[in-house]
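# nightly structure sweep
# worker-07 picked up a monomer target from the shared queue
# config: single-sequence mode, recycle default, output format = structure tokens
# input follows
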Amino acid sequence: TGSNLFGGNKTRKLEYLIGKAKAEGCDHVFTYGAVQSNHAMQTVWAAAKNGIKPVIYLAAIVPIDENDIKANLLLDRIYDAEIHIIEPLEGESFMDTEERSFKMGEEHINRLESEGHKCMNIPVGGADETGSLGYIGGITELYEQADALGVEFDYLYHATGSGGTMAGMMAGRNLLGRNTVIRSISAMEIGKSYAKHAASLSNGALALMGIGSPDDSLVKAEDFAPDDNYYAPGYEIPNEATTKAIKLLAKTEGILVDPVYSGKAFSALLDHVKTGKIEQGSKVVFVHTGGATVFFAEKEILGDVF
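# output follows
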């Protein structure tokens, strides 16, 4: 998770993304997300640490109290990010608000670059070919550790949002010729092109490594089977099964999984054990993707964990 105390899965991606920004001489890095975005916070920290000005456009899902700034948004301010909060318009969905924030960011980049600045525009979640390299490395390390222990995993569970972590792990799995079933539990509504987009990220990342081309098909859309049965009632909105999963893991292992991403994925894993979708005797690995700062965020995100 890097030297950031509040790291998470995006830190692996940012090793490559911020490395690219430095190599290209960027003085500003832009990215996007919800107000309590783990990705945005990690991007802000990684950019600031490397002498690059972070600029973030954050879509407000829950109301923000300027007199009581919390969690990731507080860290964004400590790291001295330039922060733009985008309030939803009447009748506008979160995705619509986010799309509007992308356009605002692009306009901002155009203004800066017309003044002679060099900017990198990092997509939500760091989910592009460069970012996905981080989890080709991540799953390779996981297999190295498993091999050293003499363990071969049947299943790998993790939370997915923007899809870059999922894409990197699938690319690594296929590249290494492993048979682990990767079950990606969605933290939000996913579109029909989600798996196709993830496959393009996988193959694009492999092409950056000199393996094939972005148009090759070492990874296919049908390799992915994202499960969107556990995110309801919505992104950053808690549910009862997730709350129970969070408290169970916290009390038995002292490990915290957040209510937005990993908590929902862990609730899916537990349900799959109970329903037999994970067969008795299977070897299962759960990839914890971070997000503990959310426990210090707004009540609307936390739900009934306390």
